[in-house]
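On clarity, I found the account of how folds are encoded harder to follow than it need be. What matters is that the chain and its backbone geometry are given together, residue for residue. The format is easy to grasp once an entry is in front of the reader. For illustration, here is how one protein appears when written out as sequence plus structure tokens.
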Amino acid sequence: MLDPSSSEEESEELVEEESGKEPLAPAAARLSPSRPGESPGPGGGGGGGGGLQPGGRAGGAARPASPSPSVASEKEKDELERLQREEEERKRKLQLYVFVMRCIAYPFNAKQPTDMARRQQKISKQQLQTIKDRFQAFLNGETQIVADEAFINAVQSYYEVFLKSDRVARMVQSGGCSANDSREVFKKHIEKRVRSLPEIDGLSKETVLSSWMAKFDAIYRGEEDPRKQQARMTASAASELILSKEQLYEMFQNILGIKKFEHQLLYNACQLDNPDEQAAQIRRELDGRLQMAEQIAKERKFPKFVSKEMENMYIEELKSSVNLLMANLESMPVSKGGSEFKLQKLKRSHNTSIIDMGEENENQLSKSDVVLSFSLEVVIMEVQGLKSLAPNRIVYCTMEVEGGEKLQTDQAEASKPTWGTQGDFTTTHALPAVKVKLFTESTGVLALEDKELGRVVLHPTPNSPKQSEWHKMTVSKNCPDQDLKIKLAVRMDKPQNMKHSGYLWAIGKNVWKRWKKRFFVLVQVSQYTFAMCSYREKKAEPQELLQLDGYTVDYTDPQPGLEGGRAFFNAVKEGDTVIFASDDEQDRILWVQAMYRATGQSHKPVPPTQVQKLNAKGGNVPQLDAPISQFSGLKDADRAQKHGMDEFISSNPCNFDHASLFEMVQRLTLDHRLNDSYSCLGWFSPGQVFVLDEYCARNGVRGCHRHLCYLRDLLERAENGAMIDPTLLHYSFAFCASHVHGNSHHMAELLGGSQPSTDGEGGKVSQSSAAEVETKKDSKKESKKRKDSKSQPNPEPKRPDGIGTVTVDEKERFEEIKERLRVLLENQITHFRYCFPFGRPEGALKATLSLLERVLMKDIVTPVPQEEVKTVIRKCLEQAALVNYTRLSEYAKIEGKKREMYEHPVFCLASQVMDLTIQNQKDAENVGRLVTPAKKLEDTIRLAELVIEVLQQNEEHHAEGKEAFAWWSDLMVEHAETFLSLFAVDMDAALEVQPPDTWDSFPLFQLLNDFLRSDYNLCNGKFHKHLQDLFAPLVVRYVDLMESSIAQSIHRGFERESWEPVKSLTSNLPNVNLPNVNLPKVPNLPVNIPLGIPQMPSFSAPSWMAAIYDSDNGSGTSEDLFWKLDALQTFIRDLHWPEEEFGKHLEQRLKLMASDMIESCVKRTRIAFEVKLQKTSRSTDFRVPQSICTMFNVMVDAKAQSTKLCSMEMGQEHQYHSKIDELIEETVKEMITLLVAKFVTILEGVLAKLSRYDEGTLFSSFLSFTVKAASKYVDVPKPGMDVADAYVTFVRHSQDVLRDKVNEEMYIERLFDQWYTSSMNVVCTWLTDRMDLQLHIYQLKTLIRIVKKTYRDFRLQGVLDSTLNSKTYETIRNRLTVEEATASVSEGGGLQGITMKDSDEEDEEDD
């Protein structure tokens, strides 16, 4: 694979000269095993075994000469030591890579798991910033994505709460944030929002949710092509699931820092593409492990176990694990060589029988056990030499394999006998006979068969040439063409179980007793059974066979007396020797290396040519247990030796401390995994799991050691800020706990009841998806144990990996890791908001709680008392409250400072000039002196908002703990109360510095109370009660002051009241401010209030007043009163006081206050009404003033407001409401009576003027004479009409004003009814007093006009006919009719058309 450079020969000579000066170290020095605790010698290996240290020229060339101590400085010594350490580390990694390569090349125990959970692509810092920019662009309207306001608000909240969170940045830094996490958080974030949206016909909320998620994906993806992203995701997912061998090689090159050319050298020298060589290497390794086990038992060099009785068990475990591996290898199918070899899916045998390779007699092969099946391809190309046949004669060929079917080619003309036809055959003969015949069609009429022209018989072997060749045909009799040739190719494929074949000379004691050349085939019957078989032609079964178990093959010198054969080698066994000879050296090397792999011997045969070359260079024979290089690969082996790789290739794996080597490769693999593009959370990829499993099984790494190292590495990363899945920690911890304490039944339950696969010495434990559900099953089963009060007996101690021995080192390391894990878990629970931000990774908090309970267990059988677990978690959550509030306070300070810099640049400039910083404690005190109480209260309100946000997030994202423990919710409530108690300290401090009798703190109460009362667990809790106790006196004081203030405003308002209607509310109420959308509203007092009353905060107008802004209404004082009463009650009601008794007390008091205030308002209005009427005119010039209507409207409003402000709810008696209603009704009656009396007085004044025309008075005669005399010369106005017209105008104007200005129709109707009735009564009385007198003509005309107009006007105003046509009216009508008739007779038309008849003429004249 790697061509040598042009200077290779020159450099080789230079290396040879150097190696001559410093010869290679003896092979025995590299064979001696070393323990982990032994210190390396001057030229020996370290803890990794002797094979790690180079011997001979490689080591001499790599190490620079040490400088003299008198010359070298300390810095140079340190640099030299560093270089030496780096060189040792490099060699250690190279040796480790050799072992990993062999695991990848020929796996026989593990496979890549396909059921592991797929890991998502993780988000980097740059990607997070890009995502932020995309969402910011959407919010700024810079994208083409159409969205409604609800979705924009949801995205805004998601952007502010999630994307800009420092916890998310920390999660990205830890490598635990994936795109799926972002999507799931947004989905959870919008689910509540979508559910709260109103229902829309034809549009389901699922559709809205899907639409929002599609828009989210569009924003998240930006302008990327979704097809490209999907293609990338598909490719990455495939690489996450399964990897090819080449990808695995490349991955571990990156993990171990191996260069590409080093990999190529090692790959070629180790013959990784040759499965037979790899299988032979495995057999040698397993044999070496068995020998090591026997050596340990013989020398009694055991590890330190927790019990002395475990020593014998340890030997049995070693042998059992090797035998299990042998069984696994034996179950492997015999595979083809080359690139066709793929990872085989193992069919593990659960048979516990141990394969004894020493009992040969029980496993003797028979000839029928050796079965070979060959595939032959015969291709007939063309024939030459057909000269005697006519050009148009038809010729064809037939082909057959002895004992098989016969095939025929197509027909061809004799002038062009070409075919290119292929025939496929299958045979069991090792030396088959292939017959090819040439025929021509017979022309004779009586010929029965075609004429055979010639034939050829071939005996191909798998080693025969594959290309087409010319063969001379045996010509038939009577064929004139004697020089016939046929071109054909015969390809004979080698079956999988045939490892080599060819002709050899052989002689033995029991078989092949004559020195004779035979055709031999090396057959692999199974992974551990090989046979050397000799075959004859046309025979399926071997003539003789030699089972190679226990034989040792080696090169030998030519044997005297044996003629035939040039290159000799033999197979030796106690009591038997078989001598073989080939015709050339190359064939001998190929046979020896094939038989060397088959025998599984530890001795490595070295070709005599290599021995001579090494001796000439002054070197030693390579290590005896190293694999021999293929003859065609000798050049690669020499090249590897030249580059110093030979020691790594030829090292004996049994002499290494694989525990430390595996610890190293697992640590480096974990580092590589945590730094890749997946959010793995510590889980290995399937390819990594496969290699690690295979390494453990093949090299006997104990499962407990593997998981202890894994736990330690994971803990180190978790302690340094990496996000590790607690389910993974739980899995490894459960494995180690079960191993140390021993409980096979319990471990079987943990693994879901399936057959546990072994680990370490004899198998593996796959890190599959079963591990991810392990903790769920574990917690469920342990919960079930907690419910069961009966004690369960201890099961038989048995470890999960089939290993019953426990070393002292394993137990001590387990206890140490257990304590570290406990500390880590408690720390994670304490910092659960930051270790599991927004509930990610999903289920991590639940898994952490379950793992903590498992860690607190003394063993794997006895469950830990629940109170103990509860106490530990409670303590963690108490600390969590302090941590969360401390960080929240710091965040609020930073945020407040930024906001202050943005809003108050002048103050910030002054702060910079004064060098005041919040970070410094002294400066913080100085700044504290400058902070006003209002600023402190504002900061406290903002802090309260953050506190509520934290508690809501805890409930939303961290409630999964109740799935692990039912009492988790109770502890979270305690955590929330502790958290709130810390906030209470700051809240109390902020409220203490507030000036007395200020009410700006009410928004803080409303904010907190609205949250607490909606939370079932926190409602009326410790903090909630504290909040009530803190604000209850403030509410009472506020109500007291508001009552006093309103009372004084009524008194002063009515004293200054102009009784003008409210036309513009804002101009009449200057103390009303615009509402602040961020804070609740609190009613205030008027501006002009006594100095003794504290100032109140402003408030906005209630919603019920919106409709009266542009209409005439009550007076300013009354409207202000009703407004304040309503606002006060609304404010108190919006407080939603949680304590029912105190809330009812407040409600009752406010209702009573409203009743008293409205009563006072009504009485003051009544008094003002009477005073106003007394000051008005008594003549017809009187016009109903606006103030009179305003007073009526005050009554109307008072009645309307009393229904809302004075009535008690909850079905109680409406005593306050009834009382004030009665007062209003009485007052309205009195006001109507007073107003009607005023109208009657005006009418009486008119009638008094008419009384001057009574009959018999001097004034009446004088007026009559004067009018008559004057009428002769000028037009005299109609006497009395001006009085009538003035009164009618007064009535109509008063009616119009009242109808237009008074808002209550019922009051108008009552007023008009009473007015009409009283007017008629007055007129009737006046006429009755003049019953004996005849009315003067002027009196009559005036009365007729007044009566008729009054009747008509009141009828138009809606007065009922029953009232209009009363007896009084009929009396008046009859009298005036009689008087009219009398006057018409006596005066002779003096009424001038004025009559009581129904006529509108006069009306038309007037109009």
